[in-house]
Amino acid sequence: MGDLTIPTMDDIDIRSKKVLLRIDINSPVDENGKIIDDSRIKAHIGTIKELVDKGNSVVLISHQGRPGDKDFISLEEHAKLISKYLDREVVFVEDVIGPYAREMIKKLENNGILLLDNIRLISEELIEAPPQQHVKTFLVRKLAPLFDVYVNDAFATSHRSQPSIVGFPLALPSAAGRVMEREVSALARIFNAEDTPKIFTLGGGKVHDTIRIIENLVRKRIADRILTGGLVAELFSVAKGINLNPKNMEILEKLGILSLIPRARKLLLSGAPIEIPVDYKVEINGNVMEEPASKVTGVIKDIGSTTAEIYSSFIKDAKVVVLRGPMGVIEDERFKSGSKSVLKASLEGQGYVIIGGGHMISALDKDMKIDSSKVHISTGGGALLLFLSGERLPALEALSMSVVNSSD
Ligand SMILES: Nc1ncnc2c1ncn2[C@@H]1O[C@H](COP(=O)(O)OP(=O)(O)O)[C@@H](O)[C@H]1O
Ligand SMILES: O=C(OP(=O)(O)O)[C@H](O)COP(=O)(O)O
Fold this sequence. Notes:
- One of its GO terms (biological process) is glycolytic process.
- Substrate binds at residues 24-26, 40, 63-66, 120, 160.
- By secondary structure, the protein is of the alpha/beta class.
- The protein has two domains: 2-181, Rossmann fold, CATH 3.40.50; 192-388, Rossmann fold (3-Layer(aba) Sandwich), CATH 3.40.50.1260.
- It is built from 17 helices and 15 strands.
- The chain has helices at residues 39-43, 45-53, 76-86, 99-107, 131-134, 138-143, 163-167, 178-188, 207-219, 230-239, 245-254, 261-269, 305-316, 337-348, 358-362, 382-388, 394-401; strands at 18-22, 57-61, 91-93, 113-116, 149-152, 174-176, 198-202, 225-228, 274-275, 279-284, 287-292, 299-303, 320-324, 352-356, 375-377.
- Strand 13, helix 14 (337-348) and strand 14 (352-356) form a beta-alpha-beta unit.
- The longest helix is centred in the middle third of the chain and has 13 residues, at 207-219.
- It is elongated, with a radius of gyration of 23 Å.
- Bound molecules: adenosine-5'-diphosphate (ADP) and 1,3-bisphosphoglyceric acid.
- Adenosine-5'-diphosphate is lined by residues 203-206, 230-231, 300-301, 324-326, 328-329, 331, 357-360, 381.
C-alpha cells in the first residue's frame, strides 16, 4: 500500500481460514440506545462479504462507546444490521473472551459469521500501550490461538494503541481490510508534494483537537491555506484582536476555548496561512442576520455569505481540499448554508476532496453530485485528522510490524 508497507488482504493467504476481523461500528445512538446512523456498519459490508466469499469463517470484533458513557451498549442491534446488509446470518455472541465465546469460535464453520460483544467489556481494551505490551494481554492470548489471520478494517480507531488494534498483528499474520486500505491510500495522496495548493477547511466544535492539528499542519507546511469556520474561526478571530462582543466571548469562555488564544496568536504571528471569516450569520432574538466580523452584535451561528463566497473561490482553485467540522450550527437548517457552500465548491472544483467527521458529512445534500474518483468520504474523525497532520497511527505501525504470509 504505497510506501506505507502495510499488508493488505491481497498480500496474505486468506482463503478457507478462520479470520478475526476488527471493525469500527461505533455508532451514534439515541437516549434509548438505538442506533441513529449506521453508515460505519455499512462501510464494512464489502470487507466481510469478500472474506466470506473466499470461504473463510469470520469473527467480528468492535467497540461501541466507552464504559460510563450512555453509548456504551451491547452489539446486539449491530449484529442484526450487519446481517440485514449482508443478507446472511450473523450470530451475536454475548461474550468476548470467555468459554462461551471461545467455544462458538471453535465450532464456527466455513462461511460462518459471528459478532462478539463490545470489546470494551474487557478493561484491557481501554489501555493505551505499545504492541509489544498488548500482545501479552488476556484478550490477545485468549483469542489469537483460535485464528489463522487477523484483519484490521477499523480505520476510525487507528489512532488508538489498544490491544484489539495493535496486539493481534504481533500474534497473527495480519492485513489491512478494504476500508482501511481505501482510507490510507486515498489519504496518502494528501502528502504528495505535487498536489498543491492544499486547502484545509476546519470548523466544528472540537477546537482543542483542531488547534493541535493546525499546529502540525503549519509546522510541517502541509497546508497552503487553512479556512476556518465554526468555533475554530471564532478563536482565531479573537486571537487577531477582533471584538466578537460579550455574548460570543461568554460561549468561548464556557467551552474553555479562550485559554487557546496564546497558541492561536503564536500561529498567526508566525505567518501561518490561516483565514478567518469577514462576516458571520448571527442570531438576534430568534432572527437571523448577517453582520461584518468587526461589528458583530448577535450570537455567531455560521459564516456569512461574503466569507462563503471568498472561501469557495479559494477552494475551487485547490488541488486537494480537506473538510472537517461544519462552518456553523448545522443542526439548525438556518445555519447550514456556510457548510453547504464550501461543500458545493469542493465538489465542483478540480481538486481531490476529502470529507471527514460526522457533522460535515451530514451536511452533504442528496442532490450534490459526488464523483467517487475524486471525492473521498472518510469513516474517520480523529484518526483522519491525525493522519493528515502527519502523526503516525498506531494501527498502521502495528500492521507494518506483522509477519506477512507466515500462515503459509
Ligand atoms: N459557531 C458555532 N457555535 C457553536 N457551535 C458550533 C458553531 N459552529 C459549529 N458548531 C457545532 O460544532 C459541532 C460539530 O463539530 P465537530 O464535532 O467538531 O464535527 P464532526 O462531527 O464533523 O467531527 C456541531 O454540533 C455544531 O453545532
Ligand atoms: O468514533 C471514533 O472516533 P471519532 O469520534 O474521532 O471519529 C472511534 O470509534 C474511536 O472511538 P474512541 O474515541 O472512543 O476511542
